[in-house]
Amino acid sequence: MAAYDLIVIGAGIVGSACAERAAVEGLRVAVVEPGPVGGGATAAAMGHLVAMDDDPAELALSRYSLQLWQRYAGLADAEFSRCGTLWVARTVREYDGIAAKIARLAAAGGQARQIDAEELYRLEPALAPGLRGGMLVADEAVVYPPRVALHLLERARAGGADCRLGRRASALSARGVRLDDGSELTGPVLVATGCALPELLPQLPMRARKGHLVITERYPGRVRHQLLELGYADSAHGDADSSVAFNVQPRPTGQLLIGSSREFGVEGREVSWPMLQRMLERAFEYLPMLRELQALRVWTGFRPTTPDGRPYIGAVADRAHTWVAAGHEGLGVTTALGTAQLLIDQMLGRAPQIDMAPFSPARSLR
């Protein structure tokens, strides 16, 4: 029976980041992952590093985590690109609301500026005519999440982590966790399994929210910034059964990554052609030239979503020596590094850098 200071279940970007931070702290770490590293929600993430201002708690977590992402700005495998984020205003109401958004970002340590329609089209000439302007957040970036997850896990392994890849955690035990091969690992457990969280911690509710992504052939220079509509937060944080929003990213490869769609109550991974068409039509409304491009691949994934939309980060109150980091919905990549640091700080008895009460798992115990 192997004993550890921390057993991380799940090697998506959040679990891998937690394992890496624990190993850096000198803890004896094990990682249990049944599938490919970063093969779940991480593989279906757009990879944006972006701060959304509609929830003060998540804004604080995002801003804290974005500072930590500076460590990987030079990592070639991460496909880190500081392309900046351009939030596009379609209506006068959206444009008039930008000043308040800038103020909220500034209060959290971020920088953004309002741009008029003339500058909007100078920055992105291919946008549809008639848009009002936008908000530019110049220092935000995109990454390729599966490679980041793999890099973080390799760093954890270099720090001594025991990676049990191809093994599934079948149940939590009084002393740790039992694996599907009958073995048992002992020590504190961190469950970072995303949508699968209820399999081990059924007291913490979680819903899977399906999304579609499209990536094109290489078209360098067509889009310079990550583009999102200012109504994106309504889709991301709303509770509608289905929704779409305009979100297009230029990748360092010259490809364009197109999102985003959200669906509750859908279990199959197959592509829904009506939903895909709805998502693409939304993108065409903002960026008509996309109609001319060749798509290379379409795929789907599931975002782990808690009842109030905020992730669970911290100790599980009704189970000793058990921790959780899951439920980040569409901000798992942005907040992975911050989540890891804040969680390890709590485990080691250090004061976290932000208020963790909004993310306490105790708020949602059944």
UniProtKB/TrEMBL annotation:
The entry's keywords: Oxidoreductase
Residue ranges constituting the FAD dependent oxidoreductase domain according to the UniProt record: 5-345
Entry EC number(s): 1.-.-.-
SUPFAM superfamilies linked: FAD-linked reductases, C-terminal domain (SSF54373), FAD/NAD(P)-binding domain (SSF51905)
First-tier enzyme category under EC: oxidoreductase
InterPro entries: FAD-dep_OxRdtase, FAD/NAD-bd_sf
Coiled coil location: none
Keyword Oxidoreductase carried by entry: yes
Origin superkingdom: Bacteria
Any one GO molecular function term: oxidoreductase activity
Name of this protein: FAD-dependent oxidoreductase
Naturally occurring in which organism (per UniProt): Lysobacter firmicutimachus
Lineage of the species this protein comes from: Bacteria, Pseudomonadati, Pseudomonadota, Gammaproteobacteria, Lysobacterales
